Amino acid sequence: MVSRKLLWVVVILVILVGIGAILVNECSYFGGMGASMTACSCSGSEVLLYDRTASDGPRKTICLGIVRSVDCHQGPGGPLIACAEP
Asked: For the chain, how many structural domains are there in total?
């Protein structure tokens, strides 16, 4: 028989993993070398994963919250373009 304490720990862990799966989303991505750029508006905290744009490399952030909108640009500061479907 499984103890109640262990059962509660498993239930809480499953709930936390579910909340994390819902609230952690890819936000901004820039591939570098003139590639298109995806930017978002995050209602939470935007966290920088890596930034290699100084050498014209990729940049990626994640949103810890809810993504309100997503914009796609031709490049950093470029005109808006249609976003590609994932």
From this structure: 1
In a domain, 14, yes or no: no
CA distance 10 to 46: 29
Query: Which residues form the domain of 61?
Result: 25-86
| DSSP category for residue 85 | P
Tokens (6 digits) for 62: 């994640």
Residue-wise pLDDT for 14-65, tens only, equals 999 988 888 888 888 887 666 778 888 888 888 888 877 666 667 888 898 8
In contact, 27 and 62? CB cutoff 8 Å: yes
| Reported pTM | 0.64
Q: Report the 10 Å Cβ neighbour count for 28.
A: 19
